[in-house]
Structure formats: C-alpha cells, structure tokens
Request: fold
Amino acid sequence: MPSPSRRAARLAVHQRQPCTFDSPRLPDGHRSPVSAYFGRHVLDLIKLKERLPREAYQALLATLRGGAPLSREVAETIAAAAREWATSHGATHFTHWFQPMTGLTAEKHDSFIDLNVQIPGELKVLEKFSGSQLTQSEPDASSFPSGGMRTTFEARGYTAWDPSSPMFLVESVNGRTLCVPSVFISYHGHSLDHKTPLLRALEALNRQAVAFLKLLGDVDVQSVGATLGCEQEYFLVDRDHFALRPDLVLCDRTLVGASSPRGQQFEDHYFGSIPPRVLAFMEEMEFELHRLGIPVKTRHNEVAPMQFEMAPIFEDVNMANDHNALAMDVARKVALKHHFVCLFHEKPFEGLNGSGKHCNWSLVTDRGENLLDPGRTPHQNLRFLAFMAVCLKAVHDHADALRAGIATANNDLRLGANEAPPAIISVFVGDQMTRIIEKTVAGSAGEDPEHFVIEMGVGKLPQLARDYTDRNRTSPFAFTGNKFEFRAVGSSMNCAGPLMMLIAGVADALGQMGARLQAKLGGSKGGRDQAVLELLREVFAETTAVRFEGNNYSEEWRKEAARRKLPNFTDTPAALAMLRDPKRNAFLCEQGVFSEVELASRYNVALERYIKHVALEAETLLEMLSTLVIPAGEKQLAQSAAAWSSASGGPAAGAARALEGRLQAVATALGDVAGATHQLERLLDEVLAIHDEPACARRLADGVRPLMAQAREAADRLEAQVDDELWPMPKYREMLFVK
Ligand code: ADP
Ligand code: MG
Reply:
C-alpha cells in the first residue's frame, strides 16, 4: 500500500483556502493607488537627480546618452548616494545582479559593513559602498557556463555596472539588498552573459538606423532604439503536488502522467474568472513588481487549465529584459508564499498548450516616433514601408539565427506542437500590408512616387494600426499593426538571446539596404522617394519567400516551406549549427555583437546545456519508472491476479473473464513499461559515453527523446489501469483543476 499520507496530500490540496479579503497578505501600502508606490524600490534618475550634485548628475547623463566613461570621482559620488538611499530603506547588503548563460539571474551579496580602525584596538563598524564596488565586481566566475572560453587558470570574470538600467532593492523576509544591474565578462573582455551582446546589438542598431534614416532624409534623428513588451505565460502547481513529483522537482515538467479526461477542450479557461487563490498570488506579485518599477499591466487566464499570463507596458529593450528576468524571479518567490510553484517551463504538461513569451517589439527614435507605426504623411508612410522592408529582410536573411536564438531542449517540446508556432521562421503581415507589398512589387519604376503612395492606399495607412481583424495567431513572427510579435520565444528564456539575434539581423539589413540606397541615390534621376521605392520593390520581391499568411500549424505549410527552401530545424542540435558556420553567422561579428571566440563559446554552452538537460530528464524518468511507476504496476498486478484467481473456478465465471481482461491490460502495460525502461537505460548509457558533443546531442534528439516518449506512453497506459489508492503521484486531473 502507498503510505496514506501521499494520497491524502494529493487530495488535501483541493481543500486549501485562498487567503480571504479580511486578512490581506499585502502590506498596507497596496491599498493606495499604484502611482503612490510604483518604483519605490528603484533608484531611478529622478531620485538620483535629487541626491547627486549637479555636475555628478550631468556626468551620469552624459554616460547614458553618449557612452562617455564615468570618472572615478563621479562613481564614488553615485555610490555614496546609492548607499544612503539603500540603507535608509533598510538595505544591509549590495550585489551585482547579472544574467549568466544559465537562464537564471545571478547575485553574490556583500554586506555594506566595513571596519574602521583609527586607533589600534578601537574598532568601529561603518557602512561603506565605494565607487569601484559600484562599477565592478569579481565573482568567482569559474562555475558559470563559458563554453570552454575560460580555462580554470583564468577563472576570473568581472561584472560591471550597466548604468542604463537602474539599481533596485530586493526584499527578503528579514532584509533588503541593493541590486546593481551588471554585465558579466571574462578577464579578457569576452561576454559571458546575455546582457552584453544585447547592448552591443543595440549599439549596432543605433548606428545603422541613424545612417539609414539620414539617407531617407530624416536628418534630425539622433538615436534609434528598440522597445519590448513581453507577454509572459506560466503555469501554477500546488506545492504539495509539486513535492510529490520528482519530474517537476528536478525538470520543471511532467515526464509521465496520463491526460485528464478534462483538459482544455471546453475552452473555458482562457480569459475566464481567475481562481481566488491565484488572484491573491497575482495581486501580491504585482504589488512587488510595481514597487520595483516594473509596469505589469495585464493579467489573465491562458488557454490551458492553471496557465496564466502577465504582460507589462513596453519599455526600452534592455530595461524590459531586465524587468522580465526580475519579474520571473519575483513570481517564483511570491508563488511559494501562496503555496504554489510557478512553472516557466515551455511544456510542463503533455497534451496541453505550452508556454511562450511573446516578444512584442518595435523600433523607436529619440523623438519617440515608432518606426513601425504607419504615419500620417506620405513621407512617414514611405519611411514606415522602408522599415517594414528592413524587418522582412532581417528575418528572411537571418531566419536561422532567429531559430538558433530560441533553441533549447524545452522549447523543442513546444515548437511545432499543435498549438505553438513551428520551427520554420516566417513572417505574417496581414491582408492590407500584403496588398501594399504586392502593389509595390508590381509597380513600375517610372511611376510618380507621391501618386503611387496615395494610389496604393499608403496615405491612409494609420488604419492599419487599428485593423486587428486578421490576426494570425499561428505565425512565429507577426506584424500587429505597429509592432512585430516574436511568438516563438519560449517562456523560460532570457529575451536577450532571441532579441540580440533579431536586432543584429535588423542592423545588418539596415546596413545592406543603406548601401544599396546610397548607390541608387547617386544614380537616380527621380529623386529620393523614387530611389526608396525602387529599393522597396527589390527588397519586397527578394523576401517574398519568408512571408506566409496561412495556418502555420498545418502540414501543407511544412511542405510549402520546404518548397520555398526555408530552413526548418526541428530540434536544438540542428538549429545551433549556424553558430559554427562562419558563412551564416558572419553578420554577428560584423555588427560587433560577438567575436568569433564568443560565438564558439555560445555554441558550446547551448549544446552542453541541451545535453545536460535531456540527460537529466532521461535519468529522472528512469528513476521514476523504477521506483514509482513499476512498483505501483506490480502491486496492481498482484491485486488483480488475486482477484481473478479467487473469482475463477467459482460461480462467478463472468466476473472472472472481466478480471482476466483487466489482468491482461495491467500485465501488458507493465511489461511495456519495463521493456522501455530497460531499453532507455541501455541507450542512455551508450549515448552518454559518446565524447563528441554534437554526435551525442544528435543521438539524444533522435534516439533518447523518442524512447522517453515511448516509455511515457506505456506508463500512462498503466496509470489508467492502476487503483487510485496505489498510484503514488498526483495526477493531471488533480494538479490542473485547483480552484
Ligand atoms: P495585443 O494584446 O493586441 O497583442 P497589447 O497592446 O495588449 O496588444 O500589447 C501586448 C504587449 O505589446 C504589451 O506588453 C504592450 O506593452 C506591448 N507593446 C505595445 N506596443 C508596443 C511597441 N510599440 N513596442 C513594443 N511593445 C509594444
Ligand atoms: Mg498571449
């Protein structure tokens, strides 16, 4: 018999009370309007301006605007102001907060205390935070992924303050810590994190876009940046259920588990009323996020049961990415207080929708103009079309880089499943844009540009932004009126991975189109608009293959995409290969996003993570099969055999026949589980002995994962035959319908 406590715990979850309105878990502050406490835990520019001498503040602004290095004195002044602010809010420690290639954020706390011994024997403790502690720190970097770039004798790595993202306070049960957003680089200056290449890609974008805009006649634009608003999906599982499932504890996803009769088929969860326990969690999480200056705005139920989404108001990419990483961390912590575990895994439950992180993205000038928003004048519309062409070219030319940027073992389980975009990267632009693009391509070069712009309806383009009727939810990269939505990004990812690829691709497209436009401007008789139109015509025509308006989930699209020769890398080992192909990844080096050494290291880190990940899942599955599933099956077999033998031979012959059927079903499923377990064990040993990493990863994708699915299928068949009392793990129906 299983210990009664296991089953009791499975069911007790459903008796848990949500916190009631009479006993708010939130500090009193949350009853005030959000604006009263928004950003309270952030040392933003307004607060710095109040606390810094004028010259120091001006020097900081110069650094932020032009990248001028901060002098030592200014760093000291800022550090002192930061310490004062932080300690006045109860902070005892500080940390550089960074985003190594683990997919999580990292921190190493130091206390503000310092010892002051002026007279020997008279020891005083005081708080100190120096300029150099603010600007640089040296974590023991040897334990972070580096893809072989850092040999152990050169284990040093540095974190360096990124002043473009403000410092903030993180609250724990007994204290607060000042966090300094930082980049993480090796002793020789190679990037070891997500933030550094993102910042470099943004620099490249700025350079190329400003130059391109000048060619278009927009000479006043000083800088161009990118905006990001990510819709973050997640699942919640009760902690008691979580604790009883080794697969969730170790891998964040279920490796076995029969589907519940009720799943998402009633389509009743999406936008449904939010369960009170969940709402209590969301409210507390949002309170924390708002105090951290993270502008979360939207919350709702997602398609799968116990799946939810949060979305912020968009911000500059670097800030939005830091905020997303921080929001995930806060969500995990607050969920625990509400007796939930927050799962950001891309596919925690088989047979239900997985979770993505739709990255809404656009380009913006220093004057706040959205370059992907159709404008009001013919010139603005032409500029809009030019940037549309840039984006199409970026995705067309660098679809494989975008695919590599979203490649993880987890996301492989989601991409191409029947509810998520496939691994083929295409662009959806909508009916109206398609008509405009096709008209542009068909138009003759001699046409009067002004007339053409009006003729093809570009003069009325603002309506596009309001036209949400023809949304295509199946596309991995969709234009949604005034921004693109990169939907293939997985829910657990650091957005910088995919976005640096996208932004570097856009910078490359801008550079290429700029050069072509310049050549045309030299030779064109028809003036600038004429030259731009000519270029648009060419680029729209060249990028036709990447545009797809139909159902991306369909089998026909797979065939059609193959005909169009669009890459379709169905798994991570295949998708990562471009990182090793200098022909394919040269643009990343040309735009200054990666050095060749860094690219090699990214490849190694990503491949190694894939191998470790799949190996961990396979080992966890094997342990669960051997210690939970098979023992439950054996008990059931004994029980069924006993029931059958006591019925057979007696008067209950009919019952005996039924019991025999049951006995056979149990025996068959159990035999299949045991067989698959044995096979998986042998294959895993063999594959993990392969030293060549790409070959090992290939075999994991082609051999181990399919065998895991086969073992799971047998285990799930067995689950359906085993007495509920005997089943040792929470079932799908129990985990997914917590009220
Ligand atoms: P929808 O739900 O129609 O996709 P929303 O307006 O709700 O659109 O936006 C979804 C996300 O897109 C939000 O996080 C929002 O802030 C973000 N977003 C809106 N405009 C932009 C933009 N110009 N750049 C980046 N993100 C944007
Ligand atoms: Mg959504």
Residues 596-647 form the longest helix (52 residues). Confidence is low (pLDDT under 50) at residues 20-24, 459-469.
